[in-house]
Task: structure prediction
Amino acid sequence: MTHEVLKIDGLTKLRSGRPVLRDVSLSVAAGERVALLGHNGAGKSTMIKIALGLLSPDGGSVRVAGSVPGSGAARLATAFLPEAVSFHGALTGREQLSLFARLAGTGTGPVAGLLERVGLADAADRRIRTYSKGMRQRLGLAQVMLGKPAVALLDEPTSGLDPISRQDLYTIIDELAAQGTAVLIASHALTEVEARTDRIAILRQGELVANDTLRNLSRRAGLPTRLRIVVRGGLADQMAAETGGTRVNGASVDVECAPDTKMEALRRFASMPDRVEDIEMTPPGLEDLYRHYAQEGKQ
Amino acid sequence: MTARVLAVARSEMTILRRNRWLFLATLIMVLFALALTFAGSAPTGSLGADRLLVSVASMTTLSVYLAPLLALMMSFDAIAGDSERGTLALLLSYPAGRGEILLGKYLAQLAALSFALAVGFGIAGAAAGLTGGTSPESLAALLRLIGTSILLGGVFLAFGHFLSALAGSPAAAAGAAAALWLVFVVLYDLGLLGAVVLDSGGVFTTTFFPWVMVANPADAFRLWNVAASDGVALTTGMTGVAGSLPTWAAPLSIVLWLGITFGLAWAAFRRLEP
Ligand SMILES: Nc1ncnc2c1ncn2[C@@H]1O[C@H](COP(=O)(O)OP(=O)(O)OP(=O)(O)O)[C@@H](O)[C@H]1O
Ligand SMILES: [Mg+2]
Result:
């Protein structure tokens, strides 16, 4: 049974008279990791701020662990990682995290362990002024893990992190989900999201245009798979003309085929051993999918 | 509730200590207070006041300028800075309410300011007392000076929070704080002076002037100290105005201003979208 901890229903938000969120409905269940994608200005951060109770909605309803955003119960249940956060440079990492721990009511017990967990143990007693961007981001991540939140709202958590730190970040996100936290990740890093989330939601100019698993999204989009045919003996031009593909270089031709004709095309090329040396198949990636959903109808 | 206020206050106090504000404010107070006490060659004997009383009188004038200035400099970044860094949104996502955050920051800054004022005036006062004698009256005047300076500082701390919440950026808040200081501490009195000169002894000077003056918290602070001690009044030459007002006028003005500025800060902070 799924337990929807974050529940957004028909959410509408106006800013300067312009709608930046239009009738958005999205739920995240306990233990689920949902990626929230969309262009710059699509409304991702706005949605997160409303779920935190920092902004009030102009229509629709939002519930966090059954409570109204901004209420005491909702705030206790929510963890937040702001977009591009930087802390007061005069405090040390330990002091900053201790403040959050005291506010969260967990006491400073977990502080040292969390700093260790995000790889800041050595820098814990240095002023945040001396931290690199990625170290600040990790400090932000450490406070997310305070007090077993029911919902974690992460706004571009990987921005500024090196590849290893990103891996660590997703490991931490997995741990959060494993302990039952509903995780919503606003992100632009498609490849990571593809591998490490359960569901993908895409906002386009304030409208939710996709909300499903990657598999279902790609099936629905019906995006073509690209076959790269490596042709023998300089017959690439001829092959391109015959198949309607495009010549890539002297020896290869790219052919795009819809999901339902893919197997047929493969069989055809496989039966030309004298002309075809090799076939490389590239299924549509998240980038293609993202482009399909996020730009559809926008010319 | 109190645990969270204390957590915020504690963090703010660390910041004030780290960026040397506590140290600088105390140093400024000590230096200026000592300089005024010993450089001021007021004719003590002729007025029948001991040196400490004369010192308190000059330190009262000093405090009118310095207490608001230090308070504004300590507080202008409190909310705007956190808002710009993105930490405010994060703080507000915790169970701490806006009132608790405001109160915590305010208490820490008030404690730091009180420390600076008490140490500065205390050291200068002790020096004056040791070299020139004290009396129960002059000791009471010193304590009153410290207490009222803290209240005056408290008014301007809340003013600083108000501007900080209103301005949106630390730079804008700093500019607004400087303008506010100039208006309350310098321009207001200049304006009053001009009005009195123009009026040349008319109705304004005799009836309204004292009330208009006491309506400014900085002047109310001055009048409070003057009215409460004849010695201080004599050495500052402000007996006239102080005498024409009821004794409750100046304390009431300051207490009202505390309420007003705190209300303004709270209202501006509530409306602030992080
Ligand atoms: N304070 C504000 N006043 C008016 N409009 C705003 C304000 N903040 C954001 N907006 C507008 O709201 C829309 C959504 O902004 P939002 O920050 O939610 O986008 P986003 O999806 O998070 O973008 P990004 O990927 O760049 O972070 C944008 O059109 C933006 O211009
Ligand atoms: Mg954003």
Remarks:
- The pocket of adenosine-5'-triphosphate (ligand 1) is lined by residues A 15-16, 20, 38, 40-46, 83 (CB under 6 Å).
- Residues 2-271 of chain B form one domain.
- The CA atoms of residues 65 and 185 of chain B lie 6 Å apart.
